[in-house]
Amino acid sequence: MQSSLSESELDMASLLVDTLNLEDEAPEDIAPEAPLFGADEEGLGLDSIDALEIAQAIAQKYGVHIRADDARNKEIFRSLRSLTDFVSANRDG
To answer: Is Endoplasmic reticulum tagged as a keyword (predicted)?
Structure first.
């Protein structure tokens, strides 16, 4: 499914694919509103270990720290778009 990703969403999708070794996913094919977690057919089906790896990669690349105990994590990690929006809003510099 081809979707229209912004430059920042495509960058985040590439980070997800590279960090999690998603060999069957092309960054440009990740739908911006598809769920990242769970068994939804449209989503990536990620789990909590994946979330930790993603959070670490985001901290290294963007300087944005996502705490494991942040009450907003469910919303932050809801989709590629929500994750990208959170990082964009909280980037250093």
So the answer is: no
